[in-house]
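Renewal narrative, Specific Aim 1. Our central claim is that a sequence can be written position by position from structural information alone. The example that follows is taken directly from our test logs and has not been curated for this report. It begins with the structure tokens describing the chain, in the order in which they were read.
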């Protein structure tokens, strides 16, 4: 090997291994600054690569944490949805049970209405049967009267005295017929009042309409002129709150009678009537001579309480 070749190899080795020598040579040929910049760029690139690797690692950790948070959030959301679904199922079951109870109540109401309709039809049938029997009796009575009139006409010329006696009998029979007619009318009125009472009790006619009917009975049969007394109860002494109070008053022989008319009297009705009487006494400063409740139906408890409170319940209507 020549000395030149040996020198080249030494120079190349020094350039590779000795940085100062390399810079010295670069400076001699004007490349020293370029090499320094390349070295800085290389260090910057290495640092940038390391920072990017760290950034990617942080990014991966953030993504993993975000994935964990999302999974926990979805788990909580799934639990909430499951809880809501269970609540919806419970609500649906409660609604079904409620509708079932409602259907059962409606079915019982319908059965009661059917029974009431059946009872009413049976009552009307009995009423029609009674009217039919009455009509047959009247027809037979008319036939008997016609026959009697024929017999009277045949014997008129022969038996004036017998005719006179027959005529007297006819007069008595007419009186009996009138009395029978009056008894029948009273019976029909009594039956009508009981039917009206049943109607008011079951809501077929209004309670007010039935009271008006009873008021007419008082005036016709008992001779009592019934008027309404009204006053506003500001302190709520009767019902516990301010309200308009109405009470029926009848005056006979200068005696004041307070009257309550109803289709059905219960113990609570007796108590309220007593509170109305006390309110009337407080406002008018006058004590009534008689307390009277008129109804076709009165509960046993109502009768017992009325007796204790000095109230007379009249049920013969």
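The sequence written for that structure reads:
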């Amino acid at each position: 090997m020549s000395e030149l070749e040996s020198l080249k190899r030494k120079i190349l080795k020094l350039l590779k291994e000795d940085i100062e020598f390399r810079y010295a040579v670069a400076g001699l040929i004007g490349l020293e600054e370029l090499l320094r910049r390349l070295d800085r760029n290389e260090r910057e690139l290495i640092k940038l690569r390391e920072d990017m690797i760290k950034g990617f690692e942080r990014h991966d950790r953030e993504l993993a944490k975000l994935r964990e948070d999302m999974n926990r959030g979805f788990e909580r959301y799934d639990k909430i949805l499951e809880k809501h679904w269970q609540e919806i199922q419970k609500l649906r079951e409660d609604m079904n049970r409620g509708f079932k109870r409602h259907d059962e109540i409606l079915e019982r109401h319908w059965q009661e209405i059917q029974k009431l309709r059946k009872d009413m039809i049976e009552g009307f049938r009995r009423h029609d049967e009674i009217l039919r029997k009455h009509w047959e009796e009247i027809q037979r009575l008319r036939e008997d009267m016609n026959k009697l009139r024929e017999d009277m006409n045949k014997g008129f010329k022969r038996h004036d005295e017998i005719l006179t006696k027959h005529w007297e009998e006819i007069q008595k029979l007419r009186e009996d017929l009138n009395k029978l007619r009056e008894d029948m009318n009273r019976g029909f009125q009594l039956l009508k009042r009981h039917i009206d009472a049943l109607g008011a009790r079951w809501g077929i006619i209004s309670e007010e309409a039935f009271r008006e009917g009873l008021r007419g009975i008082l005036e016709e049969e008992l001779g009592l002129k019934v008027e309404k007394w009204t006053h506003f109860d500001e302190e709520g002494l009767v019902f516990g709150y301010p309200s308009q109070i109405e009470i029926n008053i009848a005056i006979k022989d200068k005696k004041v009678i307070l009257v309550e008319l109803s289709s059905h009297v219960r113990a609570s009705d007796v108590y309220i009537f007593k509170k109305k009487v006390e309110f009337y006494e407080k406002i008018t400063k006058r004590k009534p001579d008689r307390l009277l409740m008129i109804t076709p139906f009165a509960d046993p408890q109502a009768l017992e309480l009325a007796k204790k409170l000095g109230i007379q319940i009249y049920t013969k209507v």
